[in-house]
């Protein structure tokens, strides 16, 4: 079996849950843009260039209002800020990716992060190449879904409610799968507790940033603790 062909097939199998999630949500996004009065070209181009999931839904709504660049920048920063911490986790893995690093960084979504970080790559496969295929496939699924939603919406005048929850459901499934693989659930339970406390304390607008900072601090302390334990 060709190693390159095997890497692609492995990446495709790993990305199948994202395929269904991104196509469904992309359809909803394309339909949403159509309902706002935009041609199918707009959601397709936004999916290609912004590739921000929930950010694209927010920006779509902003496009029909009085344009305020600073508000768009701040909203995009807050909504996408969690990916800053994903990137920190992937620094070591992407360090020797060469030119592929730029595509890997651009395509680092929630679901792609879970797959690239936790997937056990078969022996003999280039892990970076597998990660690149997963990243490109996920990107393609999202763009295809957005195109189909906008295109079908313009032809059939479709309107389907509730598809904006698909991304949340998909990430829950991926997180649950990782939870079942963990030897210790300390990080998972503490993460849930920290999130709830921050939400109650800081409100919906600012809780995410505070939560992520505390989770990074927790990760640092747990890592130092494990290192000390390993040295004894």
UniProtKB/TrEMBL annotation:
Alphabetized UniProt keyword annotations: Cell membrane, Membrane, Transmembrane, Transmembrane helix, Transport
Membrane-spanning ranges: 12-32, 44-64, 70-90, 139-156, 192-222
Subcellular compartments: Cell membrane
A Gene Ontology BP annotation from the UniProt entry: L-valine transmembrane transport
InterPro entries hit by this protein: Brnchd-chn_aa_trnsp_permease
Superkingdom of this protein's organism: Bacteria
GO (cellular component) term, any one: plasma membrane
Membrane topology: Multi-pass membrane protein
Family classification: Belongs to the AzlC family.
PANTHER family the record matches: INNER MEMBRANE PROTEIN YGAZ
Protein name: Branched-chain amino acid permease (Azaleucine resistance)
């Amino acid at each position: 079996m060709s190693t390159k062909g095997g890497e692609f097939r492995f990446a495709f199998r790993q990305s199948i849950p994202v395929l269904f999630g991104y196509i469904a949500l992309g359809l909803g996004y394309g339909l949403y843009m159509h309902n706002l009065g935009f041609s199918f070209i707009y959601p397709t181009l936004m999916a290609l260039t912004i590739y921000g999931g929930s950010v694209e839904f927010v920006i779509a709504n902003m496009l029909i209002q009085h344009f305020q660049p600073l508000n768009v920048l701040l909203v995009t920063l807050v909504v996408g800020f969690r990916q800053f911490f994903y990137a920190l986790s992937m620094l070591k893995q992407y360090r020797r990716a060469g030119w592929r690093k730029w595509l890997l960084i651009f395509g680092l979504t929630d679901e792609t992060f879970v797959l690239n970080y936790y997937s056990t790559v078969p022996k003999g496969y280039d892990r970076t190449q597998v990660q690149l295929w997963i990243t490109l496939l996920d990107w393609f699924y999202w763009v295809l879904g957005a195109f189909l939603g906008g295109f079908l919406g313009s032809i059939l005048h479709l309107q389907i409610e509730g598809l904006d929850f698909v991304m949340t459901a998909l990430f829950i499934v991926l997180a649950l799968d990782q939870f079942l693989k963990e030897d210790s659930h300390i990080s998972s339970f503490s993460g849930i507790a920290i999130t709830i406390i921050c939400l109650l304390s800081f409100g919906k607008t600012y809780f995410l940033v505070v939560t992520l900072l505390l989770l990074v601090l927790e990760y640092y302390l747990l890592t130092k603790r494990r290192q000390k334990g390993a040295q004894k």
